[in-house]
């Protein structure tokens, strides 16, 4: 069982969290977006092996946040509330 | 050297001390060029090589495997073979695999122990029974075997299930596929490897791909830890690592990688005769010929490339199993492991040419790649040999994500998501 | 007699408390403290089991968890437990044990003949045969032969009181292994002020100090063990015996399984330590010689355990065979206990021979003699030594399992003939034999290093003051081409020849070796066999051992009862159902409950299984005739408020919602980003900046999650606020021609005339002192009022409704009747009448798709190739000929283009309509909206029916009853 740091509640067991998405997948608005671009937003993923940045939700407090994580060894880096992101 | 496997050759070799068997497959040094390359020495890759040789007569082929053949998901799955799918496209695909499995031992002269013990998918409510009826009708219309089981039918095949009145997941019936069952996973990889090797295919282990050779916008081969290897077309069947190779080739796939755990109990005398899946608990189980209860459940919560088990998922899977079969509370867990699966939004595989011309995909099988090995091999071989889709693989092309023509079996079962 | 209990000695047993139990039907006398294995040895029972494949007779090899041979099914006074290690199971009165994989018993197994055919069925033979005529002819017999122990199908856990306990524990330092290293490490950590937990899989702490000669700080080691445990326990640090650390998981979470010996199920501990000290020791290996699996051949260390802890002398004439120093103490002890001991050492320049031991140095055992038990050995110089038992030490394999599970890498040490930890893992230290120490002084040295990170001071680090053990070893691996059958994996019957066969057939990678031969895949997971197999493969293929590599070490270290993992999670604790505030009131009214989308709701009121249909139809009919009362409390009530609330709901819904006037309601769809209808329901606008999303009962959680996601991702926390009030309010529905009259009779204090409260409007009333929200929305097609009130005040309102309702012939209806009523109107249920491909225009709602200019969830997906295709499944009604039975839900419409049958859609809902006195059905049919009037074929379980495509609404298509 991994411990994830919720920016609001501190470290909590993984079972309280739900994976959202890869960070930085911005929604292209409008009905005129090209089919490939829309498919890219909906479906295409970098799915990196190693360091990554993801959106998670802590289900017990309901807050979404961004978290740095390694997909191989499961080491956890920073977690930031949405809007806190420097980038 | 003894080549052919049979009771007689075993007897003869028994007399001779088992010393005359030839290697199951050759391990040659890779050449600099081949007609075709297959990246990934799991079931799909080895089957692709075999069908290239057998169906298309192309034997100047190498299978490049990062580690040892069959060491990925082929050797980590729960060995279920079934074709109980809803959409005709899916039935065509998995039905092809299912039929090929039925004759695979003969075809490969390798006993893959395809054991058609039947599989029952339980229904825990009237609503589930209605959806089950929809599925059974679709399967029958699409030409595969299916029966709608009553609760009494389920009791007949699963006498040890929890039929207590207070059971959390009562049984209202189920979907039965009698031709479904399990096969010996390692044997499928080894059998294809042996047969392909005999037809002249080179199987190269410990040969990791570092990058693709791209010339004129086309894939012309691969750089490996054992040097560069060139070919006209390259196929990849690297379940669990598809996105990693896609990144090397410069494109993205609609895939997230997750760990899928499985575990086995200690071996016991026969207690579970069929494959069973409970949608309520998300747990499926069967008993291997060795006597172990083979147990699987849902994906881990966390996208991952770490091939290791964890406690939270294991605990919920085991709790589900004991809810289904209280008597299994006597058993002990012997081994727990995980494989990395390609999870695709519509849970259907991706077969077809990649955005990098000359590179062909066989990926995205999610948790169900093992059952499809013969079809995945047949179809990727067809693509590599002809450059064109087989009718069965056409609907599974990567282009379906842009057209929206997804093949979501869960959607077919009434789940909006 | 050969093995026997000595008249004195045995630190583990209490000779004043005799216990008897049974083994294979025979009564065995033992003492409290005995294991099944020590008691069987004391009773001189040599054959305790049969091997998996060849049914070879097998005796007790070890004294701990590595035991490959002595597996028994336990029952009787104990919890039923197949495949229990006799070496770790304490005896107790009334325990019944049965050898596994033997029939009728281990001593006389009727399948023993299989061993005579072993040469024809080597490793992996099954891949080469059983193909003709058909595997299915052979498989049943093979299955019946396979498996070890037996599961009792009638076994039942005796209820929640017997659920395995599961404990979460945090500590600074977790020490795994309570041998000298672990004890010393725990004591150092405690002295440094850390919170410590010390666990050991044996029945008491001490490890090798319980049977090996040692002096610590000038006194016998036993005294130091006792003192250390006392110090730890006095300071409140848990010291757990009979507790196996079976797995290290992500972030160094350690799983422990604690065995109890009082009939309770085992306990699972999830320990989250800041640091872990692994002091897991080492396991003794067998020596490779022909027939080294005969009963009576035992690990030398185990022989010493049985002698010193249980007072059992293994034999009168004992051959000790070794390649290392550790067996010398054993030889001396056996001789001192009265055995005639011959010591065969592979090495010529060995340690001084213990007193009374006859030496055979520079010699190797090449084969064991005997059939059902060992009778002697033959040496490489041809001499034979008679013996009634043979104890062997082929060296020690450090227990690296947990270290490797934690992703530690190993390094090969040729001088020690073993793998040791070769790198460091964050948060984990190794000590003792696992760190390569042999002598006690070295052990404490490794402890000092391991403790460096958490204990500044070395105060309390013990000193070894006795004779120090030495660890010189000459590797003795199986070699290719050896004569006879040299057994490597005892339980799975893998011999050196099998490894050679694997190599010959190119299964040379370590994982191929394991899988092809099954070496290391038995219930002992190869604890005594893996390294020998590796070394042999290295020898055959001309590689060094580390080039062959090691297999992955997977949890659990030893088998763990499934009950430990399940804990109390079962039944409703596994998957709770949601319950209505008025559940007990409904039960008192005779409601029959069913689960719908996670909620337990009244299906109908009164009736039995046999007449349920009639009861449901009566409810539906009375609802149309007078007035129906229905508990709709499960309906979603998610409040959306804030300055951007209107903009938010516009984006969330397919339909434009911002034009809704305060006090009014609108029906709409929520889509997923892929354009599929995810939910439908009513949106209520309370005021300018406040809405209530009334979503489907079973989707409340998911809708709430999606709203939150869009809120936080797109609108910001300050712009919109979302509150799920579903469980706070009960919703009681009054529907039917006389509903207005009944609601008026309640005196809620709000005007109910259609001008003041038209269809799709809300009003505010009061019931007693409590506000009641009255919404005129309808899921029946009749005039309806939804009365929402604080959940804890629903009971009196429901009671008044019931009482007042009598005057209006009110019928209380369950969900089944409601389903008929809504189907008569062609109202959909998402997930039943739609599937995961259904888009809004498939349901006949194309306006927003055509006209809306602003963006909304799922919009772009409504214009993909597939969304605009002409073959989409569209929502329709189906009508069968008069007098026919209802269609079956799930039946498929079929077409036969060019002879091939294919599906054209399916029936989603089907009922007998009591008001129409005929069947009604809803369906999704290919191009259905354009095919009204067409008659189609439907197939259900092989049977064909015909039906005509009609509009979905079968009752009151003009909608007059909404205002009637």
From TrEMBL, chain A:
It comes from the Bacteria. InterPro entries: SoxD, SoxD_sf. Pfam families: SoxD. This is Sarcosine oxidase subunit delta.
Automatic annotation (TrEMBL), chain B:
Keywords: Cytoplasm, FAD, Flavoprotein, FMN, Nucleotide-binding, Oxidoreductase. It catalyses: sarcosine + (6S)-5,6,7,8-tetrahydrofolate + O2 = (6R)-5,10-methylene-5,6,7,8-tetrahydrofolate + glycine + H2O2; sarcosine + O2 + H2O = formaldehyde + glycine + H2O2. Residues 36-80 form the Rhodanese domain. The keyword Flavoprotein applies. PROSITE patterns: RHODANESE_3 (PS50206). Its EC number is 1.5.3.24. Signal peptide: none annotated. It is found in: Cytoplasm. InterPro entries: FAD-dep_OxRdtase, FAD/NAD-bd_sf, Rhodanese-like_dom, SoxB. It comes from the Bacteria. Its cofactor is FAD; FMN. NCBIfam families: soxB. Belongs to the SoxB family. This is Sarcosine oxidase subunit beta.
From TrEMBL, chain C:
Keywords: Oxidoreductase. InterPro entries: 2Fe-2S-bd_N (IPR042204), FAD/NAD-bd_sf (IPR036188), FAD/NAD-binding_dom (IPR023753), GcvT/YgfZ/DmdA (IPR028896), GcvT/YgfZ_C (IPR029043), GcvT_C (IPR013977), GCVT_N (IPR006222), Sarcosine_oxidase_asu (IPR006277). Residues 483-567 form the SoxA A3 domain. Residues 172-412 form the FAD/NAD(P)-binding domain. It holds the Pfam family Pyr_redox_2. Residues 874-956 form the Aminomethyltransferase C-terminal domain. It comes from the Bacteria. Residues 583-846 form the GCVT N-terminal domain. Transmembrane segments: none annotated. Belongs to the GcvT family. NCBIfam families: soxA. This is Sarcosine oxidase subunit alpha family protein. It comes from Mesorhizobium retamae.
């Amino acid at each position: 069982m991994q411990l994830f740091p919720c920016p609001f509640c501190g470290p909590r067991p993984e079972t309280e969290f739900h994976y959202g998405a890869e960070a930085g997948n911005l929604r292209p608005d409008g009905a005129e977006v090209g089919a490939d671009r829309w498919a890219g937003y909906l479906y295409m993923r970098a799915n990196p092996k190693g360091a990554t940045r993801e959106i998670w939700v802590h289900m017990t407090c309901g807050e979404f946040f961004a978290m740095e994580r390694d997909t191989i060894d499961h080491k956890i880096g920073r977690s930031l509330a949405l809007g806190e992101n420097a980038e | 050297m003894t080549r052919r496997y049979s009771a007689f050759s075993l007897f003869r070799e028994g007399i001779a001390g088992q010393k005359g068997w030839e290697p199951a497959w050759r391990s040659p040094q890779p050449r600099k060029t081949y007609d075709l390359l297959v990246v990934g020495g799991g079931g799909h890759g080895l089957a692709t090589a075999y069908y290239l040789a057998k169906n298309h007569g192309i034997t100047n082929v190498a299978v490049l495997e990062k580690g040892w053949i069959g060491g990925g998901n082929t050797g980590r799955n729960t060995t279920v073979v079934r074709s109980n799918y809803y959409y005709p496209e899916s039935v065509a695909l998995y039905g092809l695999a299912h039929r090929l499995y039925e004759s695979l031992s003969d075809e490969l002269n390798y006993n893959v122990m395809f054991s058609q013990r039947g599989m029952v998918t339980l229904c825990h409510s009237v609503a589930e029974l209605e959806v089950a009826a929809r599925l059974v009708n679709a399967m029958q219309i699409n030409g595969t075997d299916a029966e709608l089981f009553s609760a009494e039918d389920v009791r007949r095949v699963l006498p040890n299930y929890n039929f207590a009145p207070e059971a959390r997941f009562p049984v209202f019936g189920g979907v039965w596929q009698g031709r479904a069952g399990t096969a010996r996973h390692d044997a499928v990889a080894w059998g294809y490897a042996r047969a392909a090797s005999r037809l002249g295919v080179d199987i190269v282990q410990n040969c990791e791909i570092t990058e693709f050779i791209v010339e004129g916008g086309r894939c012309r081969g691969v750089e490996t830890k054992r040097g560069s290897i060139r070919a006209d077309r390259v196929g990849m069947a690297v379940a669990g690592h598809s996105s990693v190779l896609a990144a090397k080739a410069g494109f993205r796939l609609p895939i997230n990688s997750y760990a899928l755990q499985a575990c086995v109990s200690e071996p016991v005398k026969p207690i579970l005769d069929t494959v069973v899946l409970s949608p309520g608990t998300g747990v499926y189980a069967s008993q291997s010929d060795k006597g172990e209860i083979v147990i699987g459940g849902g994906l881990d919560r966390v996208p991952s490339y770490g091939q290791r088990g964890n406690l939270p998922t294991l605990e919920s899977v085991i709790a589900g199993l004991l809810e289904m079969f209280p008597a299994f509370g006597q058993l002990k867990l012997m081994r727990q492991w995980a494989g990395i699966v390609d999870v695709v939004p519509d849970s259907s595989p991706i077969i077809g040419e990649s955005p990098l011309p000359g590179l062909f995909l066989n990926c995205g099988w999610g948790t169900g790649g093992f059952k499809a090995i013969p079809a995945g091999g047949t179809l990727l071989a067809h693509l590599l040999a002809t450059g064109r889709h087989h009718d069965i693989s056409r609907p599974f092309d990567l282009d379906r994500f842009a057209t929206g023509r997804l093949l979501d079996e869960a959607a077919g079962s009434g789940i909006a998501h | 007699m050969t093995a026997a209990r000595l008249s004195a000695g045995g630190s583990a047993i209490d000779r004043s408390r005799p216990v008897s139990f049974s083994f294979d039907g025979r009564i065995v006398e033992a003492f409290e403290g005995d294991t099944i294995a020590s008691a069987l040895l004391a009773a001189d029972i040599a054959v305790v089991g049969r091997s998996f494949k060849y049914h070879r007779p097998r005796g007790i090899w070890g004294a701990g968890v590595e035991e490959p041979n002595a597996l028994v099914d336990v029952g009787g006074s104990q919890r039923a437990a197949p495949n229990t290690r006799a070496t770790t199971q304490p005896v107790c009165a009334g325990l019944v044990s049965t050898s596994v994989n033997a029939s009728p018993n281990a001593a006389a197994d009727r399948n023993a003949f299989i061993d005579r055919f072993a040469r024809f069925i080597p490793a992996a033979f099954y891949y080469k045969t059983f193909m003709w005529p058909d595997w299915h002819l052979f498989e049943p017999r093979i299955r019946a032969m396979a498996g070890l122990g037996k599961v009792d199908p009638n076994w039942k856990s005796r209820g929640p009181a017997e659920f395995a306990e599961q404990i979460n524990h945090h500590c600074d330092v977790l020490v795994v292994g309570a041998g000298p290293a672990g004890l010393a490490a725990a004591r150092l950590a405690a002295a440094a002020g850390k919170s410590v937990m010390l666990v050991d899989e044996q029945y008491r702490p001490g490890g090798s100090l319980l049977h090996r000669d040692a002096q610590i700080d000038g006194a016998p080691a036993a005294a130091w063990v006792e003192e250390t445990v006392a110090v730890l326990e006095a300071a409140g640090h848990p010291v757990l015996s009979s507790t196996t650390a079976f797995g290290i998981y992500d972030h160094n979470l350690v799983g422990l399984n604690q065995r109890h010996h009082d009939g309770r199920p085992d306990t699972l501990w999830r320990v989250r330590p800041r640091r872990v000290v692994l002091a897991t020791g080492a396991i003794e290996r067998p020596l490779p010689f022909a027939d080294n699996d005969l009963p009576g051949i035992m690990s030398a260390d185990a022989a010493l355990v049985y002698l010193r802890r249980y007072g059992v002398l293994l034999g009168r004439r004992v051959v000790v065979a070794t390649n290392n120093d550790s067996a010398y103490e054993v030889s001396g002890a056996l001789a001192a206990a009265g055995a005639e001991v011959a010591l065969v050492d592979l090495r010529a320049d060995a340690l001084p021979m213990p007193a009374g031991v006859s030496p055979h140095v520079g010699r190797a055992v090449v084969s064991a003699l005997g059939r059902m038990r060992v009778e002697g050995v033959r040496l490489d110089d041809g001499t034979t030594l008679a013996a009634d038992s043979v104890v062997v030490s082929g060296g020690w394999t450090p227990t690296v399992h947990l270290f490797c599970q934690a992703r530690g890498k190993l390094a090969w040490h040729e001088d020690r003939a073993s793998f040791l930890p070769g790198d460091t893992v964050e948060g984990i230290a190794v000590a003792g034999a696992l760190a390569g120490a042999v002598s006690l002084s070295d052990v404490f040295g490794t402890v000092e290093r391991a403790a460096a990170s958490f204990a500044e001071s070395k105060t309390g680090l013990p000193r070894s003051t006795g004779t120090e053990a030495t660890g010189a070893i000459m590797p003795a691996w199986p070699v290719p081409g050896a004569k006879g059958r040299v057994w490597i994996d005892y339980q799975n019957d893998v011999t050196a020849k099998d490894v050679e066969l694997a190599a010959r057939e190119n299964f040379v990678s370590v994982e191929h070796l394991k899988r092809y031969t099954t070496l290391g895949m038995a219930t002992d997971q190869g604890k005594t066999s893996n390294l020998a197999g590796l070394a042999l493969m290295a020898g055959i293929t001309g590689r060094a051992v580390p080039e062959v590599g090691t297999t992955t070490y997977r949890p659990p270290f030893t088998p763990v009862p499934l009950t430990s993992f399940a804990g109390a999670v079962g039944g409703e604790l596994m998957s709770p159902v949601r319950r209505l505030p008025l559940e007990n009131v409904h039960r008192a009214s005779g409601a029959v409950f069913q689960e719908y989308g996670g909620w337990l709701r009244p299906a109908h009121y009164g009736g039995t299984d046999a007449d349920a249909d009639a009861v449901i139809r009566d409810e539906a009919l009375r609802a149309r005739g007078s007035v129906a009362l229905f508990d709709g409390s499960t309906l979603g009530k998610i409040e959306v408020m804030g300055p951007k609330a209107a903009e938010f709901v516009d984006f969330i819904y397919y339909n434009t919602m911002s034009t809704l006037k305060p006090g009014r309601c609108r029906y709409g769809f929520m889509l997923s980003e892929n354009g599929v209808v995810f939910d439908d329901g009513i949106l209520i606008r309370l005021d300018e900046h406040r809405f209530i999303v009334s979503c489907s009962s079973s989707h409340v959680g998911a809708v709430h999650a999606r709203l939150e996601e869009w809120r936080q991702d797109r609108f910001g926390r300050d712009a919109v606020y979302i509150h799920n009030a579903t469980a706070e309010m009960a919703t009681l529905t009054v529907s039917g021609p006389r509903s207005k009259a009944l609601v008026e009779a309640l005196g809620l204090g709000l005007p109910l005339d259609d001008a003041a409260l038209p269809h799709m409007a809300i009003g505010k009333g009061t019931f007693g002192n409590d506000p009641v929200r009255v919404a005129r929305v309808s899921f029946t097609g009749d005039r309806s009022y939804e009365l929402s009130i604080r959940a804890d005040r629903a009971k009196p309102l429901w009671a008044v409704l019931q009482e007042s309702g009598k005057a209006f012939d009110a019928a209380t209806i369950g969900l089944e009747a409601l389903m008929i009523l809504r189907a008569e109107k062609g109202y959909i249920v998402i997930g039943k009448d739609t599937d995961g491909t259904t888009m809004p225009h498939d349901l006949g709602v194309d306006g927003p798709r055509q006209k809306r200019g602003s963006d909304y969830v799922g919009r772009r997906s409504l214009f993909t190739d597939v969304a605009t295709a002409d073959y989409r499944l569209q929502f329709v009604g189906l009508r069968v000929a008069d007098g026919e039975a209802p269609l079956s839900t799930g039946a498929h419409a079929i077409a036969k283009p060019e002879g091939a049958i294919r599906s054209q859609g399916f029936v989603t809902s089907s009922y007998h309509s009591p008001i129409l006195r005929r069947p009604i059905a809803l369906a999704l049919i290919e191009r259905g909206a354009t095919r009204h009037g067409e008659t189609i074929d439907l197939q259900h379980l092989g049977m064909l029916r015909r039906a005509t495509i009609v509009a979905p609404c079968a009752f009151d298509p003009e909608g007059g009853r909404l205002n009637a």
